[in-house]
Amino acid sequence: MPGLMTRLVSPAAAAFVLAVPIAATPASADPTGVPTPAVSAAATPLTVESAGEFTDTRVAELLEEYGAPGVAVTIVTADGPIATVAHGHADLAEGSPLDPAVHVFPTASVAKSFTAAAVLTLVEEGRLDLTEDVNTYLPEDVRLPGETITLHDLLTHTPGFAEMLERLGGDEGSELGEAVRTAVPEPLFAPGEYTAYSNYGLALAGYIVQEVSGVPFEEYARLHVFEPLGMEDTAFTQIPDARAERPLVTPHLVDGTPAEDLYIMDAPAGAAVTTVDDMGRFMTALLDEGRVDGEEALPAGVVEAMLGRQQEMHPAITGMGYGTYQWRAGDSPAFGHGGDLPGMHTGYAVVPELGAGVFVAVNGDDAAEGNPFLDLRMAVVTEFLETFAPQEPPAGAADPAADLSGFEGTYVTSRRPVSGPAKLVTLFDNVTVSDAGDGTLSVIGEFAADERWLPVSVDEGVFVAENGTDVLGFVERDGQVVAVAFDANPTNVYTRTGALGTPATHLLIAGAGLLVLLTVLIPVQRSGNGFTLATRVTLTATALAAFTGVGLLVYGIMDLHRAQIWLIERSPALTVPLTVAGVLALVSTVLVGVCLARGWLRPFSRVHLSLAALAGLAVTAIGLVYGLVISPI
Predict the structure, then answer these.
(1) Integer Cα distance of 612 and 614 in angstroms
(2) In this model, does residue 62 exceed pLDDT 60?
(3) For residue 515, which of 623, 434, 615, 412 has the smallest C-alpha distance?
(4) 580-602 burial: b if 16+ Cβ within 10 Å, else e
(5) pLDDT tens digit string along 550-581?
(6) More reliable by pLDDT, 23 or 111
(7) Is a pLDDT exceeding 80 seen at residue 8?
(8) Which residues cross the membrane (predicted)?
(9) Is 346 helix (H, G, I), strand (E, B) or coil?
(10) Using CA atoms, how far apart are residues 592 and 200, in angstroms rounded to an integer?
(11) pLDDT score, position 522
């Protein structure tokens, strides 16, 4: 399950792990009139010599710049590899050099492409239908309730599932059937409504392969994907098992220490290992209609489906293939996938119009400190595209006469949990859009490429970052803007939320509540009977519990590794303090009410204690919104 963990572990989010959606050089295709960039004439011709220069020199420079332990890269055409290299170390402690001909790499979410290929081989045989209800293929105890979900939905990440961090762990040794029965995600959207990356969705697709074929998924992938492609060193297997049998690289955390092996519950979503050479064969097949070494390895229909734009949220923004996504759109689109685990980052991109592709594996977190939009893997893929198949972003210009008010609002990620403290992700992964007043939009968010965005087409809701590094498109339904999609990440969108549902509003309420609660901790001389004293003591306890909860949350944010563990395990450290505060706040409110009714409080205390009781309720209510309070329901 490859990578959101990295994505949300960016400067304060710390949550998922597996399958980080990443796309590269921004560009946009527009069947509706938005300008579409063409491949730049400044492209460096791709030859054996230029590819070798790129891998030997530029990749080495990027490794030095980013400071990762090691990087392996291969560039291929439809005829096979033309440049392969590794720089750095396979294991820092041992000082062993990284060797592309020897070392095996965990793929993380790149494995989703293998799973999609397995599904599509059965589609080509007529044994699976992409538009059929998946319940048709599932045993009764695995069938999904609610609206019809199809394999098309699963392969394009549009089944509408909420995110579940619990699925990032699991009991070692559990088989796939048990995994898909465990911690089934709740529906968040209607199927097909929004793209929202789902590891469970791909795991379920792999399980359907197993059920329909009658062969364990891992074995089916070996027989029908890896063996035909000649990928002899690629397999679906857990990292500890692979390490016992193969020369597996050591993933490293940002401080250079080895990352712990992660057991991947949703095996078809990310539990695979591969080599640089094997990934070269996989990309070659994608570039040559399923052929490798001149022989058909995959049906041409499989490749066509994987490299087709199967799902989009906006016609001018990157979309989804089956088991792939667009790194960029435009006249020269690139398809592929990225993957992330602690200390391991992979990615591949093929450009059919260029007739070439690149695969990158980095065995360590680097200077990006967990932000997949800024890491070494991303830099190599982006520079490959900009060097050999560059595209200019669409032209934008400020339009002071345009009415941009309809785009204003707060939007939260569609890849979000709906229960537990992992709901904190929306506190960090959101964007706020406002009219800058000069014919441009101001877009503020953790993953916004720039703050100032220029209109490309106001009618189509397309804007380009002033720095040219990303494009966004607003999604409209029934004449209303409901979401915003970014070119740099086609695997999720940001859905619009009302004023009371915005993280900024929640933070304001919680902050005000904490300030009021702080006043009850200030020791002052007070008089009154035993009941009023008990009221003050209860309010003080409420404040102490609330500040304890906030303090532990801040500690988690400062120590992202600890926060990751707490979120996945739903640690009591995140839920007990504010739950206690909530109970005490309710008791305090009752006690204050009695004091007011009996006239036991002086005028100042009436106001002060009433506000303190309300503040306790407000803080715990916000805690409930973000899963930090154990709900009695």
Answers:
(1) 5
(2) yes
(3) 615
(4) bbbbbbbbbbebbeebeeeeebe
(5) 999 998 878 766 777 788 778 899 999 999 99
(6) 111
(7) no
(8) 504-524, 536-558, 578-597, 609-630
(9) strand
(10) 48
(11) 82
Owner of token pair 């014919």: 439
624 phi, psi to nearest 5 deg: -65, -40
Residue 551's alpha-carbon distances to 413, 425, 537, in angstroms, are 26, 18, 21
Rounded CA separation 171/183 (Å):
12
The answer for residues whose C-beta is within 8 angstroms of residue 133's C-beta and 6 or more apart is 148, 149, 150
Residue 303 one-letter amino acid: V
* Mean pLDDT across the chain: 90
pLDDT of residue 367: 64
- Convert 130-160 into a string of H (helix), E (strand) and C (coil): CCCEHHHHCCHHHCCCCCCCEHHHHHCCCCC
Tell whether pTM > 0.85. Answer: yes
Task: State the first-to-last Cα distance of the chain, in angstroms, to the nearest integer.
Answer: 31
Give me 499's structure tokens: 């004023």
| Helix (H) or strand (E) run with residue 496 in it | strand 489-497
Inter-residue contact 588 to 545 (CB < 8 Å): no
What pLDDT digit, counting tens, does each position of 362-403 carry? 999 986 655 666 799 999 999 999 999 999 889 999 999 999
SS3 71: strand
Supply the pLDDT for residue 595. Answer: 95
Beta bridge partners of 198: none
Residue showing tokens 């290929």: 117
Residue corresponding to tokens 């074929």: 213
β 441-445/452-457 pair status:
antiparallel
User: For residue 209, how far is the Cα from the chain centroid?
Assistant: 25
Backbone angles phi, psi at 414, to 5 degrees: -80, -15
Distance CA 59, CA 361 (A): 12
Q: pLDDT tier at 172 (50, 70, 90 boundaries)?
A: low
Tokens found for residue 567: 């979120």
Helix, strand or coil, per DSSP, at residue 482: strand
Whole-number Å distance between alpha carbons of 431 and 113 = 30
Helix then strand then coil, in percent of the chain rounded to 5, is 40, 20, 40
pLDDT of amino acid 527 = 61
